[in-house]
Amino acid sequence: MGVEEESCQTRLVLGLGSIRGESKKSPPLTLSLFGETIDDLCGGQDSAASSLSNASVKRERDEEVDDTEDHRVSSDDDGSNGRKKLRLNKAQSALLEESFKHHSTLNPKQKQELARKLKLRPRQVEVWFQNRRARTKLKQTELDCELLKRCCESLTDENRRLHKELHDLKALKLAPPLYMHLPPAATLAICPTCERIGGTTASSEKAAKTSFAKPHFYNPFTNPSAAC
DNA sequence: AACCTCGTCCTACTTACGTCA
DNA sequence: GCTGACGTAAGTAGGACGAGG
User: Fold this and answer.
1) Residue nearest to nucleotide B14 (CA to C1')
2) Chain B bases under 7 Å from protein CB?
3) A134 touches strand B (CB under 7 A)
4) Per-residue pLDDT tens over the stretch A192-214
5) A11-62 tens-digit pLDDT
6) Which residue in A9, A14, A18, A155 is deepest, having the highest Cβ count within 10 Å?
């Protein structure tokens, strides 16, 4: 099936969502002209083109640039009006990915060059980059979400632990006989920040002194379990 | 200088096709 | 063969921005 065959066909694409009124942005019906510009079809400028959106006009202009290879399949063979979908081959995907690694956006020259190499229309290259950026962003959002979830879980655990510790300390305070079993007060070190009782070793004393000298700030993002 | 229009590019959202389990 | 989920190409609306009048 050649480009000429396809480009001569005017295809009416009916968006189901639009028909159902699901999309607030979409018009009820969309007339899609594949391979032909409005000007081509109307035989001149300033007729119907002026009523089209900028994007549509631009798209049609792009399509004029490269229609040398048919990556589309006409759906009119079977009499349906649905659009057929381009599938990029592995080589095309690989080159696009490689290009995306170097720059996630394209200038017009790069777009043209890439389209020429891939034997695609510049508009298709542009769309691929738009969708690729969207996928990258979505993936990053998912990763961020996962990280926040883990931080939240960590903070919840820490909070639970601190509550329990506070409860234990209060219980300890209300139980005088237990004082008898504790070491002399002078040997106890209490963390001024978390109010935990430290041990009597040199290291814990040192830690306590350090805590006095320099209050520690807990950053769950850099050190989720850094508290004491 | 301030404004308006136009063209272009982008994002966000959506639709619809192809594939696969 | 049918079906639902998923990935993705493509359509659309609207905003931002620069150029030119």
Assistant:
1) A23
2) 7-19
3) yes
4) 555 455 444 444 444 444 433 33
5) 333 333 333 333 333 333 333 333 333 333 333 333 333 333 344 434 444 4
6) A18
Measure, in angstroms, how far nucleotide C14 C1' is from residue A146 CA: 31
Residue A61 located in a structural domain: yes
How many other CB atoms sit within 10 Å of the CB of residue A72? 20
A23 touches strand B (CB under 7 A): yes
Residue A228 within a domain: no
Residue A124 forms part of a structural domain: no
Looking at the 3D structure of chain A, how many domains does it have? Answer: 2
In a domain, A54, yes or no: yes
Residue numbers of the domain that contains A55: 1-87
With a 7 Å cutoff on the CB, does A31 touch strand B? no
**Nearest residue to nucleotide C14 when comparing alpha carbons to its C1'?**
A25
